[in-house]
């Protein structure tokens, strides 16, 4: 029987995830011996160099994008598709049936759940209904009496784009005049914890790794380390369980302020870019679960089985090209 292949979409610069997913394939019978491909709109990408192959596809916002990926899966024997960014999930979620018809399982929730977590207002309403504490929000008419500074962010967004501090009522009103969909929240002075999790097909959470975002650049953690904070664990578990009851399955990332009480900030229904640390902390069990269940294999495990104090310091590498040919890369491919 021919081994299935894995396709990472919008792979671009995420070399670490590509390498760890490739390693995880060897632990999943139907994928062992298969190839890992990267699809991106750019012709040359770092992740594409470290994959077994790469393909140029239309931009995510191109109407032909999803269809091109479905056709690619059919032609290349792709069994599992792993999107890495929120916008990709939104575009691909409505096409899950088309991927399935092409023999590929899309690691992505159904559209309603994807939109629930992407839309900040919808998620806040969901959290309130479930009794999950979140940062207090201030309506436009309440800004005059709100404590400054406030944290502002777009109602629909990702990667911290358009987010930041607002120091005065005048500034808040100016922001609203330019971006009417802006949300204003209390400024919480507490560590931000990322909880990388996995909800198995059974509805049970099998991975729940807490890590502190020690240094964040452009919305991505470049330094992070694993911790165990029981109140944060409980807050994340409440959000995870509530989403599981709504039908969410697969990988997710819960952002929590380690305040008193902890406050759930948001949920991303994908592998976070720094989830490579959580995968290492679980001995590879995290990424193996993602691929195994996509192939119809059951998984289980203690969600809190990981060591405290593991650290990740992400760094820049270099890939040198002469036209389409790779001249060199630092570090090289030998470590894969």
Description:
The chain is an alpha+beta fold and 336 residues long. It has 3 domains: 104 residues, Rossmann fold (3-Layer(aba) Sandwich); 131 residues, ATP-grasp fold, B domain (D-amino Acid Aminotransferase, Chain A, domain 1); 51 residues, ATP-grasp fold, A domain (Dna Ligase, domain 1). It contains 11 helices and 17 strands. The protein has a 6-stranded antiparallel beta sheet with strand order 14-13-10-11-12-15, sandwiched between helices. It has a 5-stranded parallel beta sheet with strand order 3-2-1-4-5. It is globular. It starts with a strand and ends in a 6-residue tail after the last strand.
Key terms for this structure?
17 strands, Rossmann fold, 11 helices, globular, alpha+beta, 336 residues, D-amino Acid Aminotransferase, Chain A, domain 1, Dna Ligase, domain 1
Q: What is the number of helical segments per DSSP (H or I, 4+ residues)?
A: 11
DSSP strand tally: 17
- The CATH class of the largest domain is identified as Alpha Beta
Tell the overall outline.
Answer: globular
Number of domains: 3
CATH topology tier name of the largest domain: D-amino Acid Aminotransferase, Chain A, domain 1
Spans where pLDDT lies below 50 across 5 or more residues: none
Quick check: average pLDDT? 93
Instruction: Determine the fraction of residues in helical runs and give it as a percent range.
Output: 25-40%
CATH superfamily of the largest domain: ATP-grasp fold, B domain
End-to-end separation in angstroms reads 25 Å
Order the strands across the largest sheet as they lie in space: 14-13-10-11-12-15
H/E element sequence:
EHEHEHEHHEHHEEEHEEEEHEEHHEEE
Largest sheet: 6 strands, antiparallel
Structural class: alpha+beta
At CATH level 2, the architecture of the largest domain is 2-Layer Sandwich
User: What's the Cα radius of gyration?
Assistant: 20 Å
């Amino acid at each position: 029987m021919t081994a299935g292949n894995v396709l990472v979409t919008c792979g671009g610069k995420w070399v670490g995830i590509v390498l760890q997913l490739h390693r995880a394939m060897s632990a999943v019978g139907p994928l062992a011996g298969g190839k890992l491909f990267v699809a991106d709109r750019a012709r040359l990408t770092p992740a594409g160099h470290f994959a077994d192959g790469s393909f140029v596809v239309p931009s995510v916002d191109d109407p032909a994008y999803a269809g091109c990926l479905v056709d690619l899966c059919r032609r290349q024997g792709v069994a599992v598709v792993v999107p890495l960014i929120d916008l990709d999930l939104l575009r691909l979620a409505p096409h899950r049936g088309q991927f399935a018809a092409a023999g590929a399982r899309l690691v992505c929730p159904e559209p309603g759940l994807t939109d629930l977590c992407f839309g900040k207002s919808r998620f806040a309403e969901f959290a309130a209904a479930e009794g999950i504490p979140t940062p207090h929000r201030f309506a436009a008419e309440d800004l005059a009496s709100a404590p400054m500074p406030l944290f502002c962010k777009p109602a629909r967004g990702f990667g911290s784009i358009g987010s930041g501090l607002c120091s005065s009522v005048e500034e808040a009103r100016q922001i609203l005049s330019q971006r009417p969909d802006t949300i204003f929240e209390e400024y919480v002075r507490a560590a931000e914890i990322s909880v990388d999790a996995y909800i198995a097909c059974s509805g049970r959470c099998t991975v729940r790794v807490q890590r502190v975002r020690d240094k964040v650049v452009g919305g991505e953690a470049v330094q992070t380390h694993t911790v165990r904070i029981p109140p944060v664990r409980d807050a994340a578990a409440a959000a995870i369980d509530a989403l599981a009851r709504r039908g969410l399955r697969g990988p997710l990332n819960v952002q929590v302020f380690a305040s008193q009480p902890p406050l759930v900030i948001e949920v991303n229904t994908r592998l976070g870019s720094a989830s490579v640390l959580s995968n290492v902390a679980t001995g590879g069990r995290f990424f193996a679960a993602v691929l195994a269940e996509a192939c119809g294999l059951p998984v289980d495990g203690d969600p809190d089985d990981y060591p405290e104090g593991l650290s990740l310091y992400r760094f820049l590498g270099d890939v040198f090209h002469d036209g389409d040919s790779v001249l060199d890369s630092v570090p090289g491919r030998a470590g894969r």
